Structure formats: C-alpha cells, structure tokens
Amino acid sequence: MTDEAAPVAAPPTVYAEKTSGGNNAYHNFHNDFVHIQDPNERRRLALAEIDKAPFGWYHVRACIVAGIGFFTDSYDIFAVSLLNTMLGIVYYPGKGQLPTSSDNAIKLSTSAGTVIGQLAFGFLADHVGRKRMYGLELIIIIFATLGQALSAGSPSVNIIGLVIFWRVLLGVGIGGDYPLSSIITSEFATTKWRGAMMGAVFAMQGIGQLVCAFVMLFVTLGFKEALSASPSVKQCDGYCAVAVDKMWRTLIGFGAVPACIALYYRLTIPETPRYTFDIGRDVEKAADDVKAYMSGKHEGNPDDITRIQAREAAQTQLAIPKASWSDFRRHYAIPKNGLLLFGTAGSWFVLDVAFYGLSLNNALILNVIGYSTAHVTNTYEYMYNTAIGNLIIVLAGAVPGYWVSVATLDTLGRKTIQMGGFIILTILFVIMGFAYYHMSSNGLLAIYVLAQFFFNFGPNMTTFIVPGEVFPTRYRSTSHGISAASGKIGSIIGQGAISILRTRGGTPDNPNPWMDHVLEIYALFMLLGIVTTLFIPETKRKTLEELSGEDQPIPRPIVASGSSHGGKTAESL
C-alpha cells in the first residue's frame, strides 16, 4: 500500500486594503472594489467604472483643480514681458529698458527651468507616484513667485541675477505641472469626455494670460497719478519709479494667489487607480497610515507579514509588467512605440519653434490697432497702451481657439485637429513670409488673428493631450515629460537662435530686414509638423488601455507550474 501525497496547503487569502486620499474633486475609485480578491478583476472593474462614468460636477471640479495650475503657469510666463518692461524703467533710469542680453536671459531662464522640471517630475511621478509629486510643483511655484516678488538688488548682488535665479526655479515648478496635470486628469477622466477634460485644463492657459493682462491694467490705473507726472519711461524717477517698482511686484506676486487656493486639493488627492494597480502594488502601508491618521497617530505600523503577503500576491497575480530600465528599452525598441514617442515629441518640438515667431510682430500689430507705445506723451500712456495691447492680443484668436478645441476634441478628434492646424499654419506662415513686404498692415493683422486661433485650435492643444493618453501607465508621465521638454527646447531654439536672424544686416531705418526669411523658416517647421503628426494615432473615445500598447506581447513571468494564473499576459486583460 503506497503512501498518499500530503495535500499542498493553499496560500492564505490576502485581501487588499484601502488606499489613502480622496476629496470632493477626486473620488477614490480603488476603494470601491477593495472587497474583490483577484487584483486583475478588481483592476478591470475599477478602471471600467472610471471610463464609463457619466460626466458630472465631479469632473468639473477635477478640471478646475488641475487647471488652476496651468492658470498660474501661463500667468507667470505671460508676465515676463511686462516684468522686463517695468524692470527696465526702474533699474535702468535714463534708458527705460533692459539691455538685450538681460531681457533674453530672463525670458530664457524660465524655459530652461521648465525643461528640467518636465523631465524630473515626469520621471519621478512614474517612480514614486503621482500623489506624492502632485502639489510639490505648486509649492515650488509659490515659493519662487514670492521670492521673485520680494527680490531687491544690493551693491554685491544684481537684481537681474536674482530674478533669473527665481525664474529658473519657477520654471522647474511650471515644468513639473505639465506631465502631472495631464496624466492625472487623463487617468481620472471618463473615456467619452477625456479630451474635453484635458483640453479644459490646458485652456486655463488662455485665462491666465487674460487675467495677467487685466492685473497689469488695474495696477496701471491704480498708479495713474504717479505715472502721469513722468514725461517718458526714460525720465521715470522718484515717485514714478517707486510706483512702477510696486507695480511689477504686485503683478508677479498675484500669481501665487490661485496656486495657494489649489494647493490643499492637490496635496490630498488619492493615488490614481492605474498607478495603484500597475505600479504601486503595496497597499498595506497606505491603509494603516489612514487608520493611524484617523486615530490621531503620526503614522501607521502595519504587520510586516501581512504586508509581505499582499505584495507577493500582487506581484504574482497582476499581469501588468513592472517598470524597469530593461523594460523601458524593450518597450521603446518596438518600432510602433518608438515612432509614437517620436511623433509626440517631434510634434511638440516643431510647434514651439514657430509658436514664438508669432510674437515677433506684436509691435506692428499694436500699431495697427492703435495701441503702439511709440508716440506716447508720458509713462502712464506707455504702461496703459502696453496693458490694453496685450489684452487685445490675448483675445485676438488665442482664447477662442482654446475653447473651440475643448468643444470639438471628442468629436473631430485629436489627430484631425492637429493635422488641420499644422496645414493651415503652414499656409499662413508661407503667406506672411513671402508676402511680408507686399501686404498691408490690416492684412497682416488678419493673418495674425487666424494664426493665433489655429495654434490653439490645433497643435498647441493636441500636443499636450495626446502624450497623456497613448503611453502605458508605467511610462506615461516619463514619456509626457520627454515630449513636453522637446517642445520647450524647440521654444528655446525659436527664441534664442532663429528669431535673432531677423536683425541680420539691420540698419536704423530697417532694423529687421530678415523678418520675411525668419517667417519662412517657421513655415518649414509647420510643414514638418504635418509629417510628425502621421506618427500619432487618433485617441478619441478609446480607453487608455486600448491606446497604451499593453496589448503587445510581453515576456511571460516565471511562476509555479501549478499556478492557475501562470498563462496570463497583458493581452488577457
């Protein structure tokens, strides 16, 4: 009689615990399915709940919380030209303007910091979590904004150097907001209206520019008496200089107000369900921290055995691959994925090279609409015309373009809008370039307004949205950061290398003889944008899982031969 084999004891059942976070703006969907034992099934149900949720006030609140960050970003970026104008008046009496090198350094410093922030925060959000990073970039923005507003020169420290320092730091915070706001909105959004939600967040840039122009107008009106006493910006001293000094500090400092309002909501959001399931597989510590917080303790102290069991169960049962450098290389070595990253990064790069080119004609546009600063009789008129002129420029196509995009992203589609925008912008820049010295000022004004509209009802909007949708969760933030940083590098090239060519061979009578050729160069970049758009897919009304490439074959995990889930891959989700 042979001995019967002893039965193998089944592994203990491990129940998932609740994760921390959640407020009126961000519902914690993960906790709704915490009672289901199979992590793959729990993941599927939770994500389906988000994808199919009807659009409601919850989504509006979520867009506002994320959008306030972009409001602040845009406000701070748009304010730099106004800031430089006032710094020149206060700190360069007799000249009334900054040296060209200082002006360019202040403007480019923000862009340089933004590149760092986009890459760093994009990487960190994939490796330490969206929740841990969201709000940190806003703290940096608040800190840098207040530091900038309170800066003052001394015999040993130049005010320009201080402003550059603070604006680099400000740029880091602004850069971090790009990948974080995009992917958090994307991962919380309903599939049907994901484009409109992400678009509404990005469209807050237009509102930020508008509010900045209004704040400039209000502070100008508030110091009208002091400014009117000065016959020109070169002679703005004494009471006038004090007034302008107060104006630029008020303008910059106000940018921290909306950021402070949104900070609480950003710091208290839950981790996104996709990150919780696909990357952050340790839920025991988070659950115990919540219990400890509710009981007034500093932090939780979960049972180590339970925590290890939960982590092991998640790692053997979840079919989603883990993030690693080898997996990152494997993923982007696949031509489809590598070309997709090229399409998003390349489109953003060529867009931002030319996006700056439109502002080269601002002086001429302001002259056409009657708000030029060339023939003013005192400092008040100079500042007033600057404020009103910038207000009109923002309203001339930019704000309408943003919101037309929001209304059509989920019907026309992202790729259609981006392709159409690049085609139209190519035509407009060709007309501006080749007919620059043959068209009237009114004709240039019309093309300017159209270009503003189709930048924002076009690639300026879609290059932000698509990278937040098409990449897998484990690399979504990193890939968005790479794409956004490519765009900002393009902006630096457009400002620092291409735009300065317009002065080649300049004379006092004709300071910008190469303006037509510069616009022709920008037209070439818009043409290249048509090519890069071919590498991105249409994303409207598709789930992130359909778009992310997780249906591609992945190396099968090594599991015990008797495991019932040993044959699953990402294709089985």
Task: Characterise this structure.
The protein is 66% helix and 0% strand. The protein has 23 helices and no strands. The chain has helices at residues 39-52, 57-91, 100-127, 130-133, 136-149, 159-188, 194-222, 224-228, 239-253, 256-267, 273-278, 284-294, 304-317, 325-333, 335-355, 362-368, 379-408, 414-434, 441-456, 459-465, 473-498, 515-533, 544-547. Helix 5 (136-149) packs antiparallel against helix 6. The chain is globular and about 75 Å long. The two termini are 47 Å apart. The relative contact order is 0.13.
Contiguous uncertain segments of 5+ residues: 1-5, 7-11, 283-300, 551-573
Class by helix and strand content?
A: mainly alpha
Rough shape?
globular
Number of strand segments:
0
Rg on CA atoms, Å:
27 Å
The biggest sheet, with number of strands, parallel, antiparallel or mixed sense and barrel status, is: none
Distance between the termini: 47 Å
- The chain-level mean pLDDT equals 81
How much helix, percentage-wise, in residues?
Answer: 55-70%
Q: Helical region count?
A: 23
Order of helices and strands: HHHHHHHHHHHHHHHHHHHHHHH
